[in-house]
Design a protein that fits this description.
Order of helices and strands: HHH
Shape: elongated
Structural class: mainly alpha
Distance between the termini: 29 Å
Strand content: under 5%
Largest sheet: none
């Protein structure tokens, strides 16, 4: 029987969520031009600003949880 109220379970959940956001943010850093091209096909305004904001949210947000 698994014990789901163990103190490690929430920590593992947070680490997994951080991994999802961190890998997405790192992908935006190293794939900047590809993300710019994709966002321009959607006719978004201020693409570099939006992309920079998304990177900050995805890279700085999870560790603050």
């Amino acid at each position: 029987m698994m014990i789901l109220d163990h103190p490690v379970v929430p920590l593992l959940g947070r680490l997994m969520m951080t991994y999802i956001f961190a890998t997405s943010g790192i992908g935006k850093v190293f794939g900047w031009s590809g993300n710019m091209a994709y966002m321009s096909t959607r006719h978004l305004p201020l693409i570099p600003v939006l992309l920079a904001i998304l990177m900050v949210i995805e890279l700085a947000g999870p560790p603050s949880w």
